Amino acid sequence: MTTTHIPEHGGKPPAASAKEASAFVLQLNLNGQPVSASCSPDTRLLTLLREHWHLTGAKPGCEVGRCGACMVWLNAEPVNACLLMAYQIQGQTVRTIESVAQDSASEPVRDALARCGGVQCGYCTSGMVMSMSWLHQQQPRPTAAEAEAQMCGNLCRCTGYGGIRRAVQELFAAGQRA
Amino acid sequence: MEFHTPHHIRELGLEALPVRPDARAKLGCNPGFLSDRIQPGQLRGAILGSPHPHARILRIDTSAAQALPGVHAVVTHADIPGIKHYGLRKVDRPVLCIDKVRHVGDPVAAVAAVDMETAQQALALIRVDYEPLPPVCDPVAALDGTAASEQPVHQDGNLLHAASHRQGDMSAARASTVHRVQDSYVTPRQMHAFLETEGGVAEPDGAGGLRLFFGGHNPAREKQVIADMLGLPHDRVHAVATPVGGSYGGKDELTIQPIAALLAWRAQRPVRLHLTRPQSVDLGVKRHPMQIEMQTGCDAQGRLTYHQVQIVADTGAYATHGPEVLDAALEHAPGPYRYLALDLGARLAYTNNGIAGAFRGFGAVQVQFALEQQMDRLAALVGMTADAFRALNLAAPEAPGPLGQHVVPFDGAQRALDVARQQPLWRGPHRWASADGRHLHGVGLTLIHRSDGFGKGGPSDCRMELALAADGAIELRCGFTELGQNLVGTIQSLGAQHLGCSADAIRPVLGDTRLTPDSGPVAASRATTLVWRALQEAAQPWQQALLLAAARLLPDIPLRCGAWGLESAAGLCLSYADLAKASGEQAPCISIDLRAEDPEGNAHDTHFVFGACAAIAQVCVDTWSGMVRVQRLVMCTALGPVASAQGYLGQMEGGALMGLAMGTQEELACLDGHYQARNLDGYLIPTLADAPEMQVLAIENIPEGDPIGPRGAGEISVNLALPAVANALAAALQRPITQLPMTPERVIALLETGAESSTP
User: Fold this and answer.
1) Is the CATH code 1.10.3810.10 the one for domain A104-171?
2) Burial of A40 per CB tally in 10 Å (0-12, 13-18, 19+)
3) Which of A53, A123, A152 to mutate to test the interface with B (most CBs of B within 10 A)?
4) How many angstroms separate the CA of residue A140 from the nearest CA in chain B?
5) In chain B, which residues have their Cβ closer than 8 Å to the Cβ of A8?
6) N or C: which end of chain B has fewer CB within 10 A?
């Protein structure tokens, strides 16, 4: 377990944030490991992942919760890491693409995206996999139409969603509802 | 229409697609994006942009920022040891503003500090005294000299570029005209919205040079501009520009690289600079908004007589690719049709409305929207169907190009139109309403062509290298970058076709000035075509070089190049890996020099190669809310052989959605020089729910003896989608569409005007 002081990105006066930082230690279960960080309580999870733990799979795209490129699973639910502050996730469980992409449970989704042309520049891909794998692992599994509607929180500017839609159709085809 | 050979059509969405070579890395979350190069010891860079769209800089005082603990560098223009401006055809953009700011966010100073918090505090301590000037916001007024500001955006005036073309006897053409349509069309400022904002790392190399890691289109030029800015010999700068998390033209010109380089050079420490979305919106280029006056006539039989076009485009504060964009607008204004007379004019205005620059679809898509509306409106006046009218007026495959230039003969437009006319979507009804009358459906057709490459006088030269690497991989080394277009897969598949080896034996090496020669920019839909040409040129010498090297080792066996090595009749004799090992320094390496192919006589800025597409769109308009949904889009794409099925399909689908969204939802409004949205919550790009059902019918025919091979597929889908959607909307609403995007407010306003009843 490592603890470091992380200055947050933003315009806070230094004295205030230094005081807060010394008062707040975030403890998390991150990808199955206990970790901690001494930081300002309003430090965003996305900043912690990338800057502190060097887990760069979650991407900053908009940092207002619109694009989905920074999606993680918080207590097994998909959320945008840019919208979570340290104080909101104290003691909770976070899983990132670094862990999910290694998990055979996400293999059907990764495989379908690769074969259907769902990956171009790849910058939205981490978030797409997080979102689509989560849907694919739900019981009962959503229909293709439900899955398409739920994938609207993940923006892709390259594919026109052609390959992403083909992957959804394949993965959530009728009859797979468990 | 008659064709000597049948159409060779592939419906790509129904094929099993080869997986792109970089898919696993991208799905495994770490394909090496340059904005992900986060390492201990890096300083954080931050830029101070102008709060004003137009102002004089009276004084910049950085002393308080310099004194802040944790700050390692504060830079302004005064810290630039070499050349302070850069640009393409026109060098007008300061790395950091000197005496004036010309758009909101125009960089004035920058800092590098131990962390972002300190960097932000340092920015707040920089004092800049401005004398605000009235912003130049209306491009027409800017050119007419009636702009509010006495002060032009640049010293030489607000006219950056003008172009014109006249051809034929206009008075005779007008005299034979029976029907005419005249209107004025307005197109929006569109944002690229690449998901990876501009970012990366600049670091001193410890040997008097600098390494740069920023996504871009042309690392060789980046190296040259930055070396010149720092007053360094060019070989001291090393630029890596691949892979890129989306660009669409938005990272073609340099973005933050010079500023990051200056910070790293001053601090002599690695500096990471990664823009937030609002900073990226302020600083990045956009698509040129255009105002297009068009007047087009035809005779009683529907034959086009004349076409008059006047274009005013808003290039914003700096030139970047503006002049080339305007030239493309002019060249595409006639489309693939023939006329008795043309009179085309275009002007490009500097304003204080951000910066416009390169964007996929490049100048052409705006005029194609206007032209294709004109074609439908004329067809309706004559009483012809939209497809028959186009077939009647299509220029012959051997005819000169749109500006009278010599072009490579190609019957793609004929074939694309022919295929489109046969589609069930086009053969069905073109307008219907839902039973309750609330929803109106329309089906529209378009036919467009677009140029490939930079054209006459452009930076068309391109160098690549084909080499047997030490581990036996066959490397195609080229300065182009992987932007998502699947250049990596295209190189492998074309390499296998031309070199006789397995696709997996080929390793594309891209976008790194230490490893790849200067290939020029990956732009203008040219990369696939150039890779094809390079491999075609190199195939024979390459195989000879391999055989020669092998003959030294196996002198008496007749060999040929096979999948993984040299083969005899009995099978594999010598693998490429063993050949590489045995050859050492002498391993085959071939340098390929490609030159522009434009003929001597062609005018400057005209193009020699065109691809063509037809498309059919189906839209549904909710007359209560004004919401537009594009439901179906059928693309009939005549671009020669498909080099990479996945790349081609992806380019078509992705570009099409981008193009159609310009017609339905995307517009970055700019009020008094301030963008009205600065993030993806205010500027809405399409989601999965906005994407229509798309069908891509690739027509692979090329004429016998065609010297070009595959035409560019990177942009033309933007070009086809917008006019198809506009024409479908006009069909649904029975009114011409003259202003984009057709937002709910505009749809409702249009529904409240009288119907023109001229759309078929």
Assistant:
1) no
2) buried
3) A123
4) 22
5) 116-117
6) N
Chain A 81-110, CB below 8 Å of chain B: which residues?
97-98, 101, 110
Q: Are A158 and B484 in contact (CB < 8 Å)?
A: yes
The dihedral sign for the CA sequence A108, A113, A114, A115? positive
Structural domains of chain B, count: 2
Helix (H, G, I), strand (E, B) or coil at B424: helix
**pLDDT tens digits, one per residue of A16-71:** 444 444 579 999 999 999 999 999 999 999 999 999 999 999 999 999 999 999 99
- Shared-domain flag, residues B661 and B722: yes
Of B541, B569, B594, the position where a domain reaches its end is B594
Residue found under tokens 């989306």:
B246
DSSP codes joined into one string, B493-537: HHHHHHHSS-GGGEEEEESBTTTS-----S-TT-HHHHHHHHHHH
In three-state secondary structure terms, B219 is helix
Strand-by-strand arrangement of the A33-39 sheet = A5-6, A33-39, A25-30, A93-95, A71-74, A77-80
Q: Interface pTM (ipTM) of the complex?
A: 0.96
pTM attached to this predicted model: 0.96
Q: Is A19 on the interface with B (CB under 8 A)?
A: no
pLDDT, tens digit (0-9, with 9 covering 90-100), for B392-423: 999 999 999 999 999 999 999 999 999 999 99
Burial of B459 (0-12, 13-18, 19+ CB in 10 A): middle
Residue in chain B closest to A98 (alpha carbons) equals B29
* Closest listed residue to residue A169, CA positions, set A150, A143, A149: A143
Task: From A133, A178, A170, A175, select the one nearest A151 (Cα to Cα).
Answer: A133
CATH 3.10.20.30 fits A5-96, yes or no: yes
Judged on CB neighbours under 10 Å (0-12, 13-18, 19+), B208 is exposed
Q: Which of B23, B276, B657 comes nearest A119 by C-beta?
A: B23
**Is B710 part of any domain?**
yes
B451, B475: one domain:
no
